[in-house]
Write a structure and sequence with these properties.
The protein folds into two domains: 226 residues, P-loop containing nucleotide triphosphate hydrolases (Rossmann fold), CATH 3.40.50; 101 residues, OB fold (Dihydrolipoamide Acetyltransferase, E2P) (Beta Barrel). The chain is built from nine helices and 21 strands. A six-stranded mixed beta sheet has the order 6-7-8-3-9-10, with helices on both faces. A hairpin with a 7-residue loop joins strand 15 and strand 16. The chain is elongated. It starts with a strand and ends with a strand. The relative contact order is 0.12. The C terminus is likely disordered. InterPro entries: AAA+_ATPase, ABC_SmlMolc_Importer, ABC_transporter-like_ATP-bd, ABC_transporter-like_CS, Mo/tungstate-bd_C_term_dom, P-loop_NTPase, Sulph_transpt1, TOBE-like. This is ABC-type quaternary amine transporter. Pfam families: ABC_tran, TOBE_3. It is an enzyme of class 7 (translocase).
């Protein structure tokens, strides 16, 4: 394993930031620390980097006990949300900075800067100042600067949080391709579920200073271990005694005895999706949230006020809630095996 964290605890006064953290991060993997603001993910990243000291516990990086090592001796590259660029230095000088303070030969520094500029596609901007770059370009410069020192571990703290949605999407794709090229062990903090699901090999869900679940994006999305993981990784609605994702519900406009009958009380178009609130006809259940594609809505002729019948879609991962405990459904529910 590249990073081993054992029984790490961290308090800020009376506030428990981290409690009993045990985590193994494999070499060469891209791991996301995902959770809500204040959940402890950035604190854990800073402890790995040596920018914060744990109150207790152990941090090991590539077999070396780094618990008490200062940050500059951990061979860790760190990228902040707001770039932390040297404003008076060109792009090339920013990238070279870490190598210069390590007293590397000038020829080696020049070659590494050229290599990094090509890697992050900023060669034509080498003589510009950071203020002359776009936000996405500045973040790529920051990543190049972190990678130039050939770190054992690359740590990214909300690296795309300050950028607009379109640029974030472009940089997510770019980061995944970059990681596949350089294969450096990478840990990044995010509160963006889509970002973690799209980019990471493994996701660590952190909430209230504790790890809720660790696994691949598919494992966490399809087999959540806790109610928090289920609700945090995507929208959830209730269909009968099941908790299910809105896009995993099948809508029928013809009566079905094995389905939940209801009426569309809200119809909202958002891009290619149509989001429905379906109020069940029996009992005092809250509306069921259903998501269908625009094409499906048109094919079925769905309109506000229509009566419809709802079932879990074939192959859906529905969760039965029993005494606040989650169980993946393995028996037929509402006539469908899920």
């Amino acid at each position: 394993m590249s990073i081993e964290i054992s029984q790490v605890n961290k308090n800020f006064g009376d506030f428990v930031a981290l409690e009993g953290i045990d985590l193994s991060i494999p070499t060469g993997q891209l791991t996301a620390l995902l959770g809500p603001s204040g959940g402890g993910k950035s604190t854990l990243l800073r402890i790995i980097a040596g920018l914060e000291d744990a109150d207790s516990g152990r941090v090991e990086i590539e077999g070396v006990d780094a618990t008490r090592l200062p940050a500059q001796k951990r061979n860790v590259g760190f990228v902040f949300q707001h770039y932390a660029a040297f404003k008076h230095m060109t792009v090339a000088r920013n990238i070279a900075f870490g190598l210069e303070i390590r007293k590397r030969p000038k020829a080696e520094i020049a070659a590494k800067v050229d290599e990094m500029l090509e890697l992050v596609h900023l060669g034509q901007f080498r003589d510009r100042l950071p203020s002359q770059l776009s936000g996405g370009q500045r973040q790529r410069m920051a990543l190049a600067r972190a990678l130039a020192i050939e770190p054992t571990v690359l740590l990214l703290d909300e690296p795309f949080g300050a950028l607009d949605a379109k640029v974030r999407k472009e940089l997510r794709d770019w980061l995944r391709r970059l990681h596949d090229e350089v294969h450096v062990t990478t840990v990044f903090v995010t509160h963006d579920q889509e970002e973690a699901l799209e980019v990471a090999d493994s996701i660590v869900v952190i909430n209230d200073g504790r790890i809720e679940q660790v696994g691949s994006p598919d494992e966490l999305y399809d087999a959540p271990a806790t109610d928090f993981v289920l609700s945090f990784l995507g929208p959830v609605t209730r269909l009968g005694d099941l908790q299910i994702r809105p896009h995993d519900i099948e809508v029928s406009v013809t009566p079905r005895t094995d389905a939940v009958r209801g009426r569309i009380t809200r119809w909202t178009r958002i891009g290619f999706e149509v989001r429905l609130d379906v109020t069940p006809s029996e009992g005092q259940q809250p509306p069921v949230q259903v998501t269908v594609t625009r094409a499906e809505a048109r094919t079925l002729g769905l309109q506000h006020g229509d009566e419809v019948w709802l079932n879990p879609a074939a192959g859906a991962q529905a969760i039965r809630a029993t005494n606040d405990t989650l169980h993946l459904s393995t028996e037929p529910q509402l006539g469908v095996t899920v």
